[in-house]
Design brief:
It comes from Streptomyces katrae. This protein is of the alpha+beta class and about 180 residues long. It has 6 helices and 8 strands; from the N terminus they run ββαααβββαβαββα.
């Protein structure tokens, strides 16, 4: 299986339909923590819905769109990163992440996002990467800052999550900014 080492015991790999049982077990372990800000836990509640979520994303990846990648630490799926949106024709993509508590605090999301951003800019020729994050999600905002994203603004109460309207912060990173940061 294809994977990229993020640390001695951590790998990034494409998350596919055949990972449904492992994905569901991961979501079950982190359901409340992950679900504070993102919808995966509400969409993957049993094996069939986990398969469907992964299948839907696989179809989007096959159409050169959205893509999911898992992060394993010590052989266990603990989180992941994704292209929530990927528009090669426009040169724009959106990067995102999720993590269960057992995977936090090691910088794995930041390292994995660097891999995705490198690929988007260097291989696919993207011009702009975005990071959309709920206003109260301080851990995700910290990742955006570490990666060099610039906060562009807030979409006030634009996202309904579990019955509550959330502000969504929009952050961006341009290809030339990424290239300059890597050479600095």
């Amino acid at each position: 299986m294809f994977s990229i080492d993020l640390a001695d015991d951590a790998q990034l790999f494409p998350l596919e339909v055949w990972h449904a049982e492992e994905f569901l077990a991961h979501i079950d372990r982190g359901r409340e923590f992950i679900g504070q800000f993102i919808g995966f836990p509400d969409r993957a509640t049993d094996l069939e819905s986990a398969r469907q979520l992964l299948r839907s994303n696989a179809e989007k990846a096959a159409a050169d769109g959205r893509r999911l990648y898992g992060i394993r630490a010590g052989g266990t799926l603990v989180g992941g990163v994704l292209f929530a949106d990927f528009d090669a024709a426009a040169g724009n993509c959106e990067v995102g992440c999720w993590m269960e508590p057992a995977g936090t605090g090691r910088g794995l999301v930041t390292k994995a996002c660097r891999v995705l951003i490198d690929w988007a800019f260097d291989v696919r020729g993207m011009h702009r990467a975005e990071w959309h994050v709920a206003g109260g999600n301080e851990k995700s905002i910290a990742v955006a800052r570490r990666l060099g994203f610039t906060r562009e603004g807030v979409l006030r109460q634009s996202h309904l999550h579990r019955g509550v309207r959330q502000d969504i912060e929009v952050w961006s990173l341009l290809a030339d900014e990424w290239a300059a940061a890597r050479t600095a």
